[in-house]
Design a protein that fits this description.
The protein is α+β, with helices and mostly antiparallel strands. It has 17 helices and 29 strands. The protein starts with a helix and ends with a helix.
């Protein structure tokens, strides 16, 4: 008996030991099973490569308030797991640390107060969150941010209020710091920060409520000096006080400085005068103006003036430095021929601008304007965007685009098939509806020679965006058939960068056709990106986007799915093969030869090759048959929508960053249910209402029969024994 009890105790002790060892292994060895379809909780390959190739120490300091209410309490846990996985795949230079920080006025130890000061030194401040405690809603302040320290440089994510996109933001911040350090080290001359402030402005400043203007020069100087210490001494400061009017005009012309003028003030105590103010950053031939003085109008109070604060100045100098030294790869953007404007004035309601796209692209790339008519396409561009051209290209301009493609430059083309013309109205109180004429820019014949074309029609789709009507118009919803919603089954998820995109919305889009014979002849691979639904049709003549005049066709045979975007890849044949090479416009050639000292005499008998490339070494073209997808009213500024992911993925793929495209799009939260037809829905409803009770009754009957047969079997067995 004693041996038996001893054996039990030994087994119990062994079980306890095994449990303890398993827990120790779990603490020291990180492992996680990710069952999500997009592998949301697993590091992407590009993240692993980023932290495994660090050449200098990188530390991530995380500042979080503990015991936060839901849903914020899961963010810290997710962040810990994410950083642990970064550490698992990193080299010896990666480190991270968590700091417990309590907001001021909510208690905390001495250590907590030190952590709070450290967080604020890094530019991380508390935010207000909503908490539900003791059956009432309360508001409290919480720290939820981190700082990435790499060498002498700091990159911060000041607010982490969601886990969405956290891996992408972390990885891109680390890559950005790496690129920034490399670019700064390789700079031969420092970036100049120049403050221009006319002495006359100091006299009028008190009347403009600009009391800080006397200390502005010292503030900027100290700020630049401190920043230079963290940027390897590659910032220099200078102050100039232009007083002469001709000098001021010259600076306004060169840098677009703000020039102010005023009449006699305070009964002549301040004489009428003029002055300029501006903060300029300059490196080489590139310069940028920082908005150091903001001017705005306030109702009843009139024009107000405000100087930028030290924190704003620091952010502006840091971001402008990144732009000037080119830490991001260049992407060309065709800036003439009527393409969409990448800039919109702050607060502007210009829906035709694509400033949201420009801001999103500038986080990873540097958009470089390409003035094709004046300067041509610069060498070294890996990709160029052509967005909504409306003006005709000359043969020489088409030749430049063609030859850039032959040299391996990729193209992202967002092109419309019609141009909107606003007709003049004879009645000033009644505006004429716009007319739409077919576009013929010349790019069409270039694309046609490569094996792809845009049909001159507009795709209308029953599966489209629905507009809510105001009550004065009867309320309800109205289909905007010209804004088709692209469902999951019509998106080509076999393409890697489209894999996680579950839905899109297009506006004023046209069908895209491919010439399979020509593509096969040149061994060009064409991949359909997405199509309209099976309930779509075409509007060919009398283009009118008034939804009141749009009706689906009466015959279903006119409806079909149509491709709306294609990706082409391979060795393209030049459009100009077998054709005369276009001559450069005479005026351009004359201007260039005059700058070079005049034309050299022509030498007869000299010939050469290499000035024309007939076949590309390998390039990509992505064609989307609408430019509306880039506009501010379609593309969100945060870049979280499927449309924004799609557009940014295009840029990444065309710049050979497919891994980044995959990492970005795996966090998409838009995951619609698969559409089911009416018959399937009726069947499922009937099964739930009638089928399940019937199944329960049948199972009950089967059980009753089984028991009855078992009872009979037992009775027969006992009867035989008697």
């Amino acid at each position: 008996m004693r041996d038996k009890n001893t054996s039990r105790y030994i087994k119990f002790a062994l079980y306890i030991l095994v449990i303890v060892l398993i827990n120790i292994v779990g603490i020291t060895m990180f492992a996680r099973l990710d069952l999500t379809g997009n592998k949301v909780y697993s590091l992407s390959r590009v993240s692993k490569e980023t932290v495994s190739t660090l050449s200098e120490p990188l530390t991530i300091n995380v500042f979080f308030t503990r015991n936060l209410p839901a849903p914020y309490n899961t963010i810290e846990r997710y962040l810990k797991d994410l950083l642990a996985e970064y550490a698992l795949h990193s080299n010896r230079y990666f480190n991270y640390r968590f700091f417990d920080v309590t907001a001021e006025g909510e208690g905390g130890s001495q250590q907590n107060m030190e952590n709070r000061k450290l967080a604020e030194d890094y530019g991380i401040y508390p935010i207000q969150i909503q908490a539900f405690e003791q059956d009432e809603v309360k508001f409290k302040k919480a720290y939820m941010g981190l700082a990435i320290i790499h060498g002498d440089m700091v990159e911060r994510i000041s607010t982490i209020s969601s886990t969405e996109g956290l891996e992408y933001n972390l990885t891109m911040s680390i890559r950005k710091l790496n690129n920034k350090i490399s670019a700064l080290i390789n700079l031969e001359k420092p970036v100049q920060v120049k403050l221009y402030l006319s002495p006359s402005l100091r006299l009028v400043a008190p009347y403009m409520q600009l009391n800080e203007i006397d200390t502005l020069a010292d503030t900027v100087k100290n700020l630049v000096t401190d920043l230079a210490k963290t940027m390897y001494g590659k910032l220099s400061y200078s102050f100039k006080a232009p007083a002469d009017e001709s000098e001021m005009d010259e600076l306004v012309e060169k840098y677009n400085l703000m020039k102010l003028q005023w009449p006699d003030i305070d009964n002549g105590r301040i004489s009428a005068g003029k002055g300029v103010i501006g903060l300029v950053m300059e490196h080489g031939d590139n310069s940028t103006l920082l908005p150091i003085l903001n001017v705005f109008r306030v109702p009843l109070f009139g024009t107000q003036y405000k100087l930028a604060g030290p924190d704003d100045l620091e952010d502006m100098i840091s971001s402008s430095l990144e732009l000037l030294i080119g830490i991001n790869e260049d992407i060309g953007y065709l800036a003439d021929h009527g393409t969409l404007e990448t800039f919109a004035m702050p607060g502007s309601q210009n829906t035709e601008a694509i400033s949201h796209f420009s801001e999103l692209a500038s986080k990873s790339y540097r958009l470089k304007d390409v003035a094709l008519a004046e300067d041509g396409i610069p060498e070294g561009l890996g990709c160029m965007i052509i967005a909504g051209p409306t003006e005709e290209f000359s043969d020489y301009e088409l030749f430049q685009i063609d030859q850039a493609l032959m040299r391996g430059m990729n193209l992202a083309i967002f092109m419309d098939s019609f141009k909107e013309i606003q007709m003049p109205s004879q009645n000033p109180y009644q505006q004429q509806p716009p007319q739409y004429i077919p576009l013929d820019t010349g790019l069409e014949k270039l694309l046609d020679s490569y094996g792809v074309r845009i049909r001159r029609s507009i795709v209308l789709d029953e599966n489209s965006y629905k507009q809510r009507l105001p009550q004065q118009y009867g309320g309800g919803e109205q289909h905007l058939y010209f804004a088709p919603i692209i469902q999951r089954e019509f998106i080509n998820n076999d393409i890697a960068f489209m894999e996680n995109i579950k839905g899109l919305i297009m506006v004023k889009v046209s069908p895209v056709e491919i010439d399979e014979v020509r593509l096969k002849e040149h061994n060009i691979q064409a991949h359909r990106l997405f199509s309209s639904s099976e309930r779509s049709w075409e509007m060919r003549d009398n283009i009118n986007f008034n939804p009141m005049y749009m009706r689906p066709p009466a015959i279903d045979d006119e409806m079909k799915s149509m491709p709306l975007a294609y990706s082409l890849e391979g060795r393209f044949a030049s459009y100009f093969t077998g054709k005369p090479i276009p001559e450069r416009p005479r005026q351009e050639a004359e201007d260039e030869t005059q700058n070079e000292g005049g034309p050299s005499p022509e030498l007869p008998g000299i010939t050469g090759t290499g000035d024309f490339i007939s076949t590309s070494s390998g390039a990509k073209i992505i064609l989307v048959s609408t430019s509306e997808v880039l506009k501010n009213n379609v593309l969100d500024a945060q870049g979280a929508s499927p449309n924004a992911m799609f557009v940014m993925n295009i840029l990444d793929v065309l710049n050979n960053r497919q891994d980044i495209a995959l990492m970005r799009s795996k966090i998409l939260t838009f995951n619609p249910l698969t559409e089911t037809d009416a018959g399937t829905k009726t069947f499922i409803k009937s099964l739930n209402i009638i089928g399940l009770p019937v199944i329960v009754v049948v199972i009950g009957l089967l059980m009753w029969v089984r028991r009855h047969m078992r009872k009979k079997h037992i009775e027969l067995k006992f009867q035989r024994q008697r």
